Every structure is written in structure tokens, then in C-alpha cells.
Predict the 3D structure of the following.
Amino acid sequence: MEIIFATNNAHKLNEVQAVLGDGFRLLTPRECGIMEDIPETQATLEGNALQKARYLYEHTGRDCFADDTGLEVAALGGAPGVHSARYATDGHDFAANNRLLLKNMEGVADRRARFRTVVALILDNKEYLFEGIVEGRIAEAESGAEGFGYDPLFVPDGFDRTFAEMSAEEKNAVSHRGRAVRKLAEFLHSIS
Ligand code: IMP
């Protein structure tokens, strides 16, 4: 089955393809002629995931899904949350975001945080939502070179390594996106 996934981020594409398996061929927006940035202007992860999926569906008429993820830090009142991509700057500057997060967590004892992903699927013009959460904590310093985004600072519960110190398989097994996409995969398998 071919399905469009609303990302041009190669890391995300690989993570999701690995979870969905060979039965699904993921197409990127670019492969479907959508060269512009897909708008994500909503105030919630659910709203953004749906907005991106609807944009793709309206412009291609094809089955598609989109995800939106936020890092929710307890001591920061759930920030950066839906603003995770643009925490420090207007762009997706991962290094600047990590520096700002460490600065805002200086001297903070409560390091609890979680990643939450919402996946919005549009299939035959019907909409479905799937959620994945991983609980963990913010490390005192960055470590590891794998993954992307806040991975060098996030230590999932049950581990003493950051996501950036894990292989893609290890991260996928426990991650927010892995969990949400496994729910998506179960649903897609159940109806095909
Ligand atoms: P997006 O909605 O998936 O684009 O995620 C928004 C932002 O959250 C990204 O720009 C990253 O900074 C961060 N993020 C999303 N997923 C991950 C992840 O798996 N690891 C680390 N950071 C992530």
C-alpha cells in the first residue's frame, strides 16, 4: 500500500518506515509535487497533525498521514510542547533548542519530561488519530550523536542513556513516535 507521510525529514521517514514494514511504501510530499512547507499553525499537537494531513489530502486526494510531536517538560509547565521545533529560534535549530532547554533547566531538580506524538490519518476521506507517549527525564548535559532534535537530552524511563545514544531500533521500541506509529500500523493492517 502506498501512503503519503507529511515529512521531508529523512530521520523521521526512516523511523516510521522501519515500524510500518515493507508492506507500506511511504511517499514524501515532495514526491507528490508538494514543494512548499505544509502549514502547521494550530495550538495543539492534534490540531497540527490534522491540519497537515488535511492539507495533503486536499492537494493530492490520496491517503496520507501526518504527525506532530512535542517535548513536554513538567518543571516548565509542559513547554516547549507544541512549540518544540521553534523553541529558541524561528527555524528548526536543534542545537539552539537544546542550549535553551539546558539553560531553562539549570538548577531544576525535577527533570521529568515526556515526548508526545499525535498521528492523524486520512483514509478514504475519514480521519483517525493515534497517540504515543514516552516518559523520561532531561539530562544535565547533551550526550550521543544518533537521532535528532532533543534526543541528546532525553533519557527515557528504564534507561540511563539518552535517545541519541541508542540505535534506531532501540529508540523505536520505546519512543513516542514508535508507539503512535505502531498503533497506526495495527489499524492499517486490521483493515487491509
Ligand atoms: P515534529 O512535530 O515531529 O516536527 O516535532 C517538533 C519538534 O520536536 C522537532 O523539531 C524536534 O525538535 C522535536 N522532536 C520531534 N520528534 C523528536 C524525537 O524523536 N527526538 C527528539 N526530538 C524530537
Notes: The chain has one domain: 2-191. Residues 29 and 37 are 9 Å apart (CA to CA).
